[in-house]
Design brief:
alpha/beta; TIM Barrel; three-stranded mixed beta sheet; 13 helices; globular
């Protein structure tokens, strides 16, 4: 990223090869997944690995940090619009429980909250009952996919499962692929996979590409979100390169973190990943979604990420089809902020339980 408004990481890195045979071809009647600068984009089908493109990647860390610092200082949502933006944030949530003490009852309670994330009396005060606000997905371990599927049946809320030896991603490849297939068979409509971070450190891009492409094939019709574990990747250049490889291999979304690293989603990392998405769209004509996860706990933070998506990619990336928050506690704070909008008072945390 040569500067604050640079469109690319550096160099042209043009991709002219045909789409990889292992990915399904686009239908003639396929509807655009998004538009970027007036150009219609298709859903990602993947492309051959382009090592020349990866070699040209450069990231100006100082410029990235300046850009994100000024973003939070100069971009605010006016008070009269805050409620609308916070409601949009709720619809982009992957409401998540990934604890060692998860139970079927906890998952069912989380699914009930996903169906009705805003208390009925508060929705009435805000006069939004007819909007039927709900989250985008509920994310659980494989063991609870069936429980979540039953609890969400008929709601339109998707079931997401973390897979591939989450969170470390170091199980044998055959086991990770089998885990994906089991979750899809159990009813998961989205799969959050974990890449092998050691392949990034070693610059083993072909191995990383082959791994992610294998996961993509195992997902079948389910959407695949590729977790990069950015807190472990050490440099923003590694983040940019890993983002591009995951997209080339067919990822529907790229995701910052498992939520288990010491450093999870940050605005500098998100900016690098979002600009990788933009460059990939410009070069290939295909749209990839973005999911920051871990550490996003306040309503103010949700507005910062939404405004980043609007500025860098446009309004199509402010909807659940191309943007998700991976969260567990964020909904609590948003509900408190909405209550303040309605009544002028902040309510106690315990009035807005998640599960």
């Amino acid at each position: 990223m040569a500067g604050e408004r640079s469109r690319q990481f550096g160099g042209a890195g043009r991709v002219t090869e045909p789409v990889v045979e292992n990915f399904p071809p686009a239908s003639v009647s396929e509807a655009p997944a998004a538009t970027l600068a007036g150009r219609a984009l298709l859903s990602n089908r993947g492309i051959p690995l382009n090592l020349d493109w990866l070699e040209r990647v450069r990231v100006n860390t100082s410029a990235v940090e300046r850009r994100t610092q000024t973003h939070t200082a100069r971009r605010t949502v006016k008070n009269e619009w805050q409620a609308a933006w916070l409601l949009r944030a709720i619809t982009c949530m992957d409401l998540t429980t990934l604890s060692g003490d998860d139970t079927d009852d906890r998952v069912r309670r989380l699914c009930a909250k996903a169906r009705q994330p805003i208390q009925p009396d508060l929705a009435k005060q805000l006069e939004i009952e007819e909007l039927e606000i709900k989250v985008a997905a509920v994310c659980v371990y494989h063991r609870f996919v069936e429980t979540a599927r039953r609890a969400l049946e008929g709601s339109g809320i998707r079931v997401a499962a973390v897979s591939t030896g989450f969170p470390a991603g170091l199980n044998p490849l055959e086991e990770r692929v089998a885990e994906i297939r089991r979750s899809v068979e159990a009813g998961a409509q989205e799969i959050d996979i974990v890449i092998t971070r050691a392949l990034v450190f070693g610059g083993k891009w072909q191995e990383l590409y082959d791994e992610v492409a294998e996961f993509r094939r195992a997902c079948g019709s389910a959407h695949m979100k590729a977790i990069l574990g950015t807190g472990d990747l050490l440099t923003l250049r590694n983040v940019a390169r890993a983002s591009l490889v995951a997209m080339m291999a067919g990822a529907d979304f790229i995701k910052t973190s498992t939520g288990k690293e010491s450093t999870n989603a940050t605005l500098p990392v998100s900016l690098v990943m979002v600009r990788a998405i933009r460059e990939y769209a410009q070069e290939t004509g295909m749209a990839v979604g973005f999911k920051p996860a871990g550490g996003i706990r306040t309503a103010k933070q949700s507005l910062e990420w939404l405004s980043l998506m609007k500025e860098e990619l446009g309004t199509p990336w402010m909807a659940a089809e191309l943007f998700r928050f991976g969260v567990s506690g964020l909904l609590n704070d948003i509900e408190r902020q909405l209550e303040h909008q309605a009544s002028g008072r902040y309510s106690a945390d315990y009035r807005h339980p998640i599960a």
